[in-house]
Amino acid sequence: MVEFRIYNVEKKIEVLYRLRKKSVINPEAVYVSFPYQIENGKIFLDVPGGNIEAGVDQIKGSSNDWYTVQNFATARNSHSQVVMCSQEIPLMQFGAINTGRYQAGAVSQSTNMYSWPMNNYWVTNFNADQVGEMQWSYFINSSEDSSLEYATKFAWSNRIPFLTRVLPAGEGNDGTNQVKNILRINSGNVLLVNMTPVENEKAVMLQLREIGGKMVDLSFSSDIVNIKKVEVCDVVGETVKGEQAALKLKPWESKFIKIYW
């Protein structure tokens, strides 16, 4: 069964698949085709720590028949793009179904995308069949903003939705709304990858990534606490010295930041 969900409040299509898979031990695979047609388009995808163009920005000799997509894949040109992401299915093939091609240096033949939910081609450490009730979904969006910054924000907001809580109205409510930020990152092209409190310190540690391909100065503010100090640290929280200690992000750079209050 395939279900399409069209949203009223935002430009987004959700495609939900439900499948009752029979036990089959002959070699087989399930592909879902997304035949996007983007004139002069190229396919980019999110990988751990950044973005690459499929078949171009990757280690020589690495896989180009299929890819493990971290958060999104996008077919884009200079003035538009189609962005797709999935919570459950990371394997994708680009341009065509390329299983078994094994061609060094190959790039996408078109802007078609093929999601690869399952197969039983592997010959070791896997069952010979895949059987049972299965469900997975995709989020799709198009935009005249063809930047990877836009694609990254769309994908992350859908894969990791904003946590909300509904509070009942109290007595004496005058109807005014108060909006306050615990922490505000004052830069639009910076992605908050992770944040965690620092044990035994009045501090939090942030992992940040630049997603727009532009140099940016980092600054922070809060409506709740008084920020006393901000410094660059390493992955274990130790203070960084020298040039790397600057509160700046180069294009596509990642840094760890510690904020004290």
TrEMBL record:
Q: Which GO terms describe its molecular function?
A: carbohydrate binding; catalytic activity
Which GO biological-process labels does this protein carry? carbohydrate metabolic process
What top-level branch of life does the organism fall under? Bacteria
Q: What is the protein named?
A: Glycosyl hydrolase family 38 C-terminal domain-containing protein
